[in-house]
Amino acid sequence: MIFSGSLADISPSDVESVTVLKDASAAAVYGSRSANGVILIESKKGTSVNGKPKFELRTSYGTISNVKPLEVYGAQGYMQHLNDVLNDNGTVVPMDQTPNYSANK
Predict the structure, then answer these.
(1) Cα–Cα dist 42/20, whole Å
(2) Closest by alpha carbon to 79, among 92, 68, 93, 91?
(3) Which end of the chain is more exposed for a tag (fewer CB within 10 A), N or C?
């Protein structure tokens, strides 16, 4: 596994062997992450419960759903919606552009 922590996090009593890979041997296995070389540390033992290996897995999932379908406007509907929004905010309504958009329904 790739370990991103500090070497101080590894207990020396758990280390079985240390191997240093550099150049092509590291790049063949680890690709661009091996630019500065790779240190392989093999541990003496893993953790177990009642003599059986112990694995821990954390997962999560999420879902996304549309609460309300989107309203699709034509040119005239968009201008009406824009005017309604501006009226609700107390902003001056722009000049009515409906004639300009009528040809592009």
Answers:
(1) 11
(2) 93
(3) N
Q: Using CA atoms, how far apart are residues 83 and 77, in angstroms rounded to an integer? A: 10
pLDDT band at 104 (very low <50, low <70, confident <90, very high): low
pLDDT digits 0-9 by tens, 48-61: 667 777 777 889 98
Tokens (6 digits) for 12: 């020396």
Total residue length of the chain:
105
CB proximity list for 75: less than 8 A, separation 6 or greater:
98, 101, 102, 104, 105
Are 39 and 20 in contact by the 8 Å Cβ rule? The answer is yes
pLDDT at 90: 64
